[in-house]
Amino acid sequence: MTESTDVTSGQPAVSTGRLSLYLKKIASLFFTVSLTLLGLLLVTFLIGRVMPIDPVLAVVGKRASNEVYEAARLSMGLDKPLYHQFFVYITQVFQGDFGKSLLTSNPVIDDIARVFPATLELATVATLIGVLVGVPMGVYAAASQGSWFDQFVRVFGLFGYSMPVFWIGLIGLLIFYGMLGWVGGPGRLDIFYEDMIPTITGMILIDSLIAGDMTIFWNAVSHIILPSLILGYYSLAYISRMTRSFMLEELASEYVITARVKGMSEQAVLWRHAFRNVLIPLITVIALSYATLLEGSVLTETIFAWPGLGQYITTSLLSADMNAVLGGTVVVGILFVGLNLLSDFLYKIVDPRARQS
Amino acid sequence: MTQSSTRSLTRWLRTDEPASRLQARCIQVYNGWQDLRSNKLAMIGLIIILGLVVTALFAPFLAPQDPYAQDLSRRLLAPGQDGFLLGSDELGRDILSRIIHGAGTTLYIVLLVTLTAPVAGLIVGTVSGYLGGWTDAALMRITDIFLAFPKLILALAFVAALGAGIENAVLAIALTSWPPYARLARAETLTVRNMDYIAAIRLQGAGPIRIIVGHIWPLCVSSLIVRVTLDMAGIILTAAGLGFLGLGAQPPMAEWGAMISSGRKYILDYWWVATMPGLAIFIVSLGFNLLGDGLRDVLDPKKAQS
Amino acid sequence: MKRFLTVEDLWVRFKTRYDMVEAVRGVSFSLGRERLGIVGESGSGKSMTGRALLGLVRPPGDVSATRIDFLGQDLHRLPEKKMRHIRGKEISMVMQDPKYSLNPVLTVGEQITEAYRLHNRVSQKIARAKALEMLEEVQIRDPERVYKAYPSELSGGMGQRVMIAMMLIPDPKVLIADEPTSALDVTVQLKILQLLDQLVEKRGMGLIFISHDLPLVSSFCDRILIMYGGRIVETCRADQLDQATHPYTRGLLQSLPDIRHPRERLSVLTRDESWKQEESVNAII
């Protein structure tokens, strides 16, 4: 008997049915994303209208005459009903027009394009630290559940969760910059190195390498190391904890026993079998942590005078520059949604089960 | 209680075969407490939080000096100098006394957020999960929108819109922190919604409100408590961050974040002004994190099974 | 008969909060080139016995034994590193549900070749050929396709065939089958059993067949151990099961319908606390 009758599934079923399923999926995804974005815009729009700041006054100044004020009001479309204003707002946003910043008098989108690379650079370095250190920590903590190392990882993570970032930043500057002089101070470069290399990506670490200027590169490293270590610590705390708990779940499953029955070493069981499965939910966690760093380094950027998006939004907010604040918020929101989509997409690539269904 | 009755109580609590629902419930709580008590870190956390509560309640008696009394002739004195145990700030106020009074502010923020965000999340999540269909789709979409916002920036924008101040800071934090609770409550609701006992209650004629309030809420509470405890540190840190940016508690009110902010200018020469209140924030958040972590181990049903 | 395994006085204990649970309590048996069935209800210690042989009881579980002899080696005292050469290569195990016991994110091919290459230093190409051959041997119709498939693309019966292929590819001498058919459809169960029987016979292996299903075990195995409360309460040849003497075994038999001796009413099994206190029966032959 070589014929088995229990072959019930697994036929390579590439058919038109699958294609239309894909289209349907993409359509529903598109619908969800645009709905979320629309909601995002609505909330920022409403915040902008609720603000006790008169946008007209902000433009024309307090001493403007009534006629000038009224003319400005009309030209800004503020006499129109709210839904009309919202519609105008959306059309503008989709054309990449967030209005002009009152503070810098540049278009907000240009300002954002200028400050964003700084944030991106910081968040990326921090996430790299978080992943490269946090993932192995989580894996080994789970593998030795209850050991001193596991306890250490847990407490180390909890410490990270408990520290006010602006405080640890200050202390870090005090010790490593003020007292020991090991790292660069606030800002992205020492002042006399600024504007010496052409801006290509806006990320100094990369631009200096492109320009081949190692002095500037190392100066940039000395400046980014402290803020990225601090942000990286948060990311590490989160990633190691999630990795640990995902790993524990996987290590309790039967295929791990199967792998051991085969005679695999514990290292191979951990990385080749359990970790492969952990990778799937971990992608979402890393994306989330990255997104949080992209949006949430407000305080770190303030402390380290890091001219990024967070600092841009905060200073704009404190000087009532609402176009800039709302524009920044929308950009960050779009980034967040985009990263979520990306992680969903990666998820489907890595997980064979998600690929089929 | 005599020793023998203590022992019989312990035996009652340790039996494998509870005789009543009350006893089973007591055993559960007792076992949980035993677990928690054997977790040293969680106990440290509990002690820190109790310490915070006691400090907040008895601040006027505990503080060695008036937290608002300025004395410019004695400004920026180092810890231990001139009777200032933790030094004095830029207006010559006693940092220790200000930290002690700041405990009340922190506790106030924590309580206010706890009473708003998780409750809102619980309502949205259970209604969404129980009713399903369009209600669910609409509510979850709204939740997603709020989740997609940068939390701190949204809180900043809210505070800017509403005006700086502690209540507005709390409101902003609550507005940005309810979505995860809604998600959690919805997930819990979905697991019990189709269970037979819910069907039985429905057949007895109970309406949706009664079922949600009387039978679904109690089931969501324990996981929400764990989540809230774990989030508490984050709430404290966000509140302190708002204070640091000048959007939370307003001077001269004693608030730890604002204290760090004012000490920031002096950090290189007078390190203690910013360091001391930061330590206070750190210790209190650590307390909540340690307790939350321990509580999760105890209350996590997944772990209890293995 | 060649004796593969001799287990003497095997204990498996678990520490809980208030006391110690003894999952396996002083079990002794041997295994030759035969099909040995271990029958018992859940919690009788039958699965734990299988795991203990492979050294797979993890903390807080604790194993002790006078000896677990495998062809002259005492497995119980073998260091973990050497034990890894026993696992898979000498003693292997098929578990209950292929849905859980196969790694969902690795292809069937990856998982089978990996089992082979752990114990044989060969190229991936040779391992692949060997794996396809093995898939053919477990009567899979389209080995090339299954080789590339992920476990979630297989039916339960196919999954179990893959599992058997994976466990037999390094050519072990002993196979432990822990409820290998309990998760499968009834129609597939029999086919898997036949397959297992053929392969074990052909390769001259020893088989430990763990199950809760007494009729199944008695029709399939040569010898039976009946476990209750962590002990062996009875051992006999499968064809002499009707002469069993222990009240537990008798109770089990009487609660089953029998077409040759129809009865008005099947009796309900009543358990006696004292069975747990009895000495474990020695099943070394």
TrEMBL record, chain A:
The chain crosses the membrane at residues 26-47, 122-143, 155-180, 216-239, 274-293, 324-347. It holds the Pfam family BPD_transp_1. It comes from the Bacteria. It is a multi-pass membrane protein. Its main location: membrane. InterPro entries: BPD_transp_1_N, MetI-like, MetI-like_sf. Residues 116-347 form the ABC transmembrane type-1 domain. This is Peptide ABC transporter permease. It comes from Sneathiella chinensis.
TrEMBL record, chain B:
It is a multi-pass membrane protein. The keyword Transmembrane applies. PROSITE patterns: ABC_TM1. It comes from the Bacteria. It is found in: Cell membrane. The chain crosses the membrane at residues 41-63, 107-131, 152-175, 224-249, 270-291. Residues 107-292 form the ABC transmembrane type-1 domain. It holds the Pfam family BPD_transp_1. Keywords: Cell membrane, Membrane, Peptide transport, Protein transport, Transmembrane, Transmembrane helix, Transport. InterPro entries: BP-dependent_transpt_permease, MetI-like, MetI-like_sf, OppC_N. CDD domains: TM_PBP2 (cd06261). Signal peptide: none annotated. Its main location: membrane. PANTHER family: D,D-DIPEPTIDE TRANSPORT SYSTEM PERMEASE PROTEIN DDPC-RELATED, OLIGOPEPTIDE TRANSPORT SYSTEM PERMEASE PROTEIN APPC. Belongs to the binding-protein-dependent transport system permease family. This is ABC transporter permease. It comes from Sneathiella chinensis.
UniProtKB/TrEMBL annotation, chain C:
Keywords: ATP-binding, Cell inner membrane, Cell membrane, Membrane, Nucleotide-binding, Translocase, Transport. It comes from Sneathiella chinensis. Gene3D superfamilies: P-loop containing nucleotide triphosphate hydrolases. GO terms for molecular function: ATP binding. The keyword Cell cycle does not apply. It is found in: Cell inner membrane. This is ABC transporter ATP-binding protein. CDD domains: ABC_NikE_OppD_transporters (cd03257). The gene is dppD2. Belongs to the ABC transporter superfamily. It is a peripheral membrane protein. Residues 5-254 form the ABC transporter domain.
